[in-house]
Amino acid sequence: MTTLTVNASATGTINGHDATYSSARTTADSGATWIVAVGQIYDSEYGYYCYQGFIQFDTSDLPDDATISSVTLKIYSD
After folding, report:
1. Global model pTM greater than 0.85
2. Dihedral sign (CA 32, 37, 39, 44)
3. What does pLDDT average to over the chain?
């Protein structure tokens, strides 16, 4: 069995803002940062804010026909 360690190539937050919740969930701005935020906020003056975090991995070193038998994800916070 071969072990491949893949570190995150980018992290960030996709966030949306609108007066209605459904529009805030589908309107997104994103940017690669080292901050991952997840959640939602309602502000009576400005409307809804929705935050969806992501972690991107470069798996190009993994062969196309590879069989993955297990995965371990470790996430650290400062």
Report:
1. no
2. negative
3. 80
